[in-house]
Here is the input.
Amino acid sequence: MHDRHHFAVALQWTGNRGEGTATYRAYGRDHRIHAAGKRHEIEGSSDRVFRGDADRWNPEEMVIAALSQCHMLSYLHVAATNGVVVVDYHDEATGTLQQEGDGGRLIEATLRPVVTLAAHHDEGDARRAEQLHHRASELCFIANSVNFSVHHEPTTVIEGAVPELA
Here is the structure.
């Protein structure tokens, strides 16, 4: 399939404190992101280290969140098409920004999905489920769009199974 899909978002800066950008410290980094048909806005800012509001999402967090979401959605797809029944999925994703001169870039992200399989699965299914992360990564639109490494450290558990002692 070679269809193109277009997405549109709108951004409104809300950080004018009365002086605009008269000085670097005069303005806030706050903004709102919205899209037609969406009931909820995303309240954004820059990271606190860049004079932003720590209570709001920063662009770097949104990129990492998009990678995590995309991998999860791709993983659930490949699990369903391979007969693997996932009953829970959560991820603790991280990313690293490297400052370079006046700019910088994200240099890596690590996804740590914990996937729980339905109780009727066995250890062989769990190994197969872990291998499906590779295919999910290949299918993830966002991971295919970034120019930095996206690592995966998956954990698979079976619902109701007693964890082994280390």
Summary: Residues 59-81 form the longest helix (23 residues). The chain has a mean pLDDT of 91. The helical segments are 59-81, 123-139. DSSP finds two helices and nine strands in the chain.
